[in-house]
Amino acid sequence: MPATIIDVARDCGYSKATVSRAFASPETVSERARERIYASAKKLNYAPNAIARAMVRRRTENIAFIIHEKQYPAILNPFYSPILEAVMQEGTRRGYSLFIAARQDMRLSNGDVYIKKQMDGVIFAGEADRRIIEEYRSQNIPVVLLNNHLELEGLPCVMADHFHGAVAATTHLYERGHRRIGLLAGRFSQQVTDARFNGYFSVLCQYGLPLERPFVVDLDPELDEAERVMTRLLQLPDHPTAFFCTNDTIAAGAVKAALRLGLRVPEDIAVVGFDDSSLSRVVEPELTTVRIDAERMGRLAANTLFDLIDGREAEELFMEVPTELVVRGTT
Amino acid sequence: MPATIIDVARDCGYSKATVSRAFASPETVSERARERIYASAKKLNYAPNAIARAMVRRRTENIAFIIHEKQYPAILNPFYSPILEAVMQEGTRRGYSLFIAARQDMRLSNGDVYIKKQMDGVIFAGEADRRIIEEYRSQNIPVVLLNNHLELEGLPCVMADHFHGAVAATTHLYERGHRRIGLLAGRFSQQVTDARFNGYFSVLCQYGLPLERPFVVDLDPELDEAERVMTRLLQLPDHPTAFFCTNDTIAAGAVKAALRLGLRVPEDIAVVGFDDSSLSRVVEPELTTVRIDAERMGRLAANTLFDLIDGREAEELFMEVPTELVVRGTT
DNA sequence: GTCGAAAATGAGAACGTTCTCATTTTCAGC
DNA sequence: GCTGAAAATGAGAACGTTCTCATTTTCGAC
Known about the structure:
The structure is a homodimer. By secondary structure, chain A is of the alpha/beta class. The first copy, chain A, is 44% helix and 17% strand. Chain A has 13 helices and twelve strands. At the A-B interface, helix 4, helix 5, strand 2, helix 7 and helix 12 of A face helix 4, helix 5, strand 2, helix 7 and helix 12 of B. The structure holds a DNA duplex.
């Protein structure tokens, strides 16, 4: 039903090759031809068919962003919003369109959807299965990992420096005079969870502070859960005076719990979060937190992917963007 | 480089037609053939090429979700997260993949990207340009509008009942005893802005309350901006005791401003928000707000789109999902 | 073992582009 | 007006599937 290049060719009297050129590389076509062709195209309401084009060029100009966070609704995760935004911008700038998916969705009967759909490249965010990645790469589809690290030949990974972020956060609490510092650790991908814990733990070691088991807890990174856990902890006798939380949602829950128990933040209880997500400034007092330059991560991942797509080697395989403590009201 | 259907056919001794069938409709192929074909496919690392398929079927199984909110970063908008999530789920369930884009990105040199890329259908969220929509429809691409309403032949629109939400919010403030109620109105798409204002205004009229110009303000729906505006208003002599805010971000900013000025919420100043977005429960006290069943909106939009794609008429063109006041701590 | 219907397979033309290679046209320089 | 190089155009084979229409095979019933 819609007009094809042949209809246009017939209408304007040029060959389909010339019509094709008029759209794909206008400068190779005489001005006269261009005008006539565009006129016909407009008349016939012709739009080039990118599918047919992709078929012969073997390039779809599409990339996919696949998020998989353990136990966490993918898109809802505010942490990924600015990353996604950056990837989108960077992609658009170079003519790519963006598919998004949450991991569990992708696996169909045979082979991965985005393999079949011939993505030019794929970014895996969060948890990622080694086998899937290898499947993509065996089809020559470039892959970049984001917020996760896997040792695979030539596989670029974009991470934030979670370790030093955690170090900064914990040190900050120490410097504020706290000697007993609890940890509320969300369950994220192994890499992230480990790095943040290690940062925290290394500071405890450095200053000879105790790791107090009952006040170091794993939990789902959700507001209610964090509030519940924190409420319980604060009712224990002899609880810490400060808590390092491995993301802002948890920190927000913790602050809420403290306030509700009539404790003052930061005077009685200090809290530091992680991510500097949009919610960090919504709570009152505003969260002291560790900023991750998410936009930069997104850009980096995208541009690395484009390098691979264009056949350039990634300049670096392990890219770690720095994190930065931002001190606000909760400490 | 990657294996094609022909390679598989050659390897297993069947024709490409049969191999094609083995993947597209396995039940039409003998068990023997299926096994041999799958074995060859596996051996050759064959993955069906959805682009070639799309070309002949004239169906890509892709849909696009295009967000355009005035002055507001698209994906960052927490309002759209659950909607997107629902659209994604619903789409995946039926074998569609999802493109996302922010409006300003889409327009390339000639024709819209997603027309060229042969979307099976498109959802426009927020502000949407009549001309663009007509362009899509002229190419027989089904379109559904979300959170916006345009009178166009056969164009389904999914809206929330912003009007009655605003009515409920304002009435609630009235019933709490407030007689002077300000309005902090974010700049969204015209439809939404108007509907929410009208709901507010109709309640004022109903109870004979004054519309006090200085306390009815338009603003960008951002935290800082809202805090700034609210701080100013609260320093005016004789300010209202309650404010209806047209989204939660604004409400959060308003609450923050009040608290910082040493006012008690809700005793001195009551605030109600809109959307019941994720942040509404993060602030303390938690926001009284108007819940929009965003998931339902997403589902509705997606399913309507699939109906159109499958050639079924939309059952209804104007779909309004109900809103519901949820009373929490700020009133 | 034969018949006939049903099931399974194959041949080959689409689908709408791009791209290579050849051919034609244009045009500057004389 | 001729020459030759450069610019513009055209013919037609790909690209990897699906699908229609034969043709072949299978198999139950007699």
